[in-house]
Design goal:
Rossmann fold, single chain, 6 helices
Length: 143
């Protein structure tokens, strides 16, 4: 097989793969729901805690996007954002927070000042998909 044919085969195989989405939420039902809603377009990987997500990112950073609950017991989405800055700052542009609207004063300030993407729970699927797709468009533009 010549080099051009091999390159085309690899590119076609890569384009058939779904983009990978990391979901971080302390509610397992949310992980299951997002998997059901998004599995036609994304390969969904669920972590029930910030700690587990950070452990995963220690060995696997190949995610199109990261969808993280803002308010969780223990470590919050804000804690995840700070840790991500330390271990993989390039992934912060792929981070989308989700929230049911319950905020602490710190969380409200973070949302207002951080300029991070935020989608509301319950989800409007079109808004969620549009947000995730916009990350893909930004990534493609930067290649």
């Amino acid at each position: 097989m010549d080099v051009l044919t091999e390159a085309l085969r690899k590119r076609t195989a890569m384009s058939d793969e779904k983009p990978r989405l990391l979901v971080i939420d302390d509610e397992p039902m949310m992980g299951t729901t997002l998997d059901l809603l998004l599995s036609d377009e994304y390969e969904v990987h669920y972590c029930p805690s910030v700690r587990e997500a950070l452990d995963r990112l220690g060995t696997d950073r190949d995610f199109h996007a990261i969808l993280c609950d803002l308010m969780m017991p223990g470590q919050s989405g804000m804690d995840f954002d700070a840790a991500l800055e330390a271990i993989a700052p390039s992934l912060r542009d792929r981070l989308v927070f989700m929230s049911g609207g319950v905020y602490t004063a710190n969380a409200r300030a973070f949302v207002n000042e951080s300029n991070r993407r935020l989608v509301s729970k319950p989800f409007d699927l079109d808004v969620l998909l549009g947000t995730l797709r916009s990350i893909g468009a930004e990534s493609a533009d930067s290649i």
